Amino acid sequence: MSAEQNMGAYTGTPPVRRLGRTLRRHRRLRIGFTQLVYVLAGFALGLAIPHVPIGFTVPRVEATQMLFAVGAGILTFIGVVFSLLFLVVQFGATTFTPRLNLFYTSPMVWHAFSYYSGAMIFCFSAAFSSGGTEEMSGLVPIVTVVLLLVAVSLYRTLQFRAFGSVQLASTLAQVTEHGRNVLEGVYTEEMPREPGRGKTRRALPDGIRNVAWTGGPGVVQDIDVPRIIEAARNADAAIEIVIPIGATVQSQATVAVIHGPADLSLDPVVLRAIRTGVERTFEQDPALVFRILVDIALRALSPAVNDPTTAVQVVDSLESLLRMLVDRDLDVGEITGPHGSARVLLTLPDWDDYVALAVDELAEEGAGHTQVRRRLERLLRDMIALAPASRRPPLQARLDDLVSKWPPPGLRPAPAEPAEPSPPEPRAS
User: Fold this and answer.
1) Is the CA virtual torsion 224, 229, 230, 232 positive or negative?
2) pTM for the model
3) In sequence order, which residues have a C-beta less than 8 Å from that of residue 259 and are 6 or more positions away?
4) pLDDT digit string (tens) for 224-274?
């Protein structure tokens, strides 16, 4: 049974199965394995294609010269492609934020590099393939031309992707879309409409034991929740993950609390289920999209850049995400077992956290820019009109604070008129 099926068997509800797909350990693109597959495929084709009869042949000497020339050209072509990659990554880091890694982590980039490597290996292996004759199958130049056409097409696609990665509108759209996909997977249900219908915390088993991180410092990138659920169910325990995804964990820091029997076999399972890295990723981090968007706006508002219009565009993207979350059930950190008992408790952001991420820093840094201040005020007013009553207080508090510092023109006190200077006193003779 797969991890997703396990998740559905434990909870029995389709929304939680979808949450399980989001919070399982994702199989990241293994760059080295991908390149190896392409290289082996190119090598195998290079050995086989020269001996496949198709009705006509070509001289081996001329075909070998062509293959060597194409292979050497592809080697140079790889350098050109990754020079473009380096420039795009450097531009995005210096113009937007160093946490913007959408282009160089794209599977298409590394599949393209692997394809070029495989095509180069095909050319060299086909050139050295010998069949004891002076002729070679006519399929060799045909396959070589097709490989070159596909390489040019891939380069064109990479080029357009690179151009989109240096444009603000395209970058904001990509970041927002990545964040929206994660939020859609984590928060699947609407919040209860009736008062008192919210979720109640289930009782946890007796006994508490902390699990300390035994690895080096790193950023929590994802958690394999189905594995933890399986271990908790077998031990009849509840496992509380106390460090949120996206936070930095230090050596010997507490990462989990086990409620229930003192089963030491749970510790290595929990530690293996938590993966760390050097930077945050979109895989399971619902707050990362807010962090990246706010970083872009703060850099635009810095004195060195002074581009408040970019900050306004970022606020537009932030509002679209808040509108998606405003009526969602954000209390999904507790995952239950088949009999309704709590098995895994996750630390996820709540509504106040998202509002604080989206508004607080921009309200502080953008207070001196009229258009940013007005856009934030409009965001808060629109969200107050849209939000359920229970989610209005954090919005209203920030709106009141913003208006108190910068009241509308009609409510600002009129400047006091300067007092008329008193006439000088007569000098005594």
Assistant:
1) positive
2) 0.77
3) 204, 205, 206, 207, 208, 237, 238, 239, 240
4) 888 888 888 888 888 899 999 999 999 999 999 998 887 788 899 999 999
Q: For the chain, how are helix, strand and coil distributed in percent, rounded to 5?
A: 55, 10, 35
Q: Which two tokens stand for residue 35?
A: 């390149």
Cα 319 from Cα 387, distance rounded (Å): 12
Q: Which residues fall within 8 angstroms of residue 163, CB to CB, at 6 or more apart?
A: none
Cα-Cα-Cα-Cα torsion 350, 391, 185, 287, nearest 10 degrees, comes to: -40
CA 318 to chain CA centroid, nearest Å: 15
The amino acid at 22: T
Task: Using DSSP, state whether 328 is helix, strand or coil.
Answer: strand
Q: Which pLDDT score is estimated for 217? A: 93
Question: Helix crossing, 308-325 with 370-386: angle to 10°?
Answer: 10
Residue 212 bridge partners (DSSP):
254
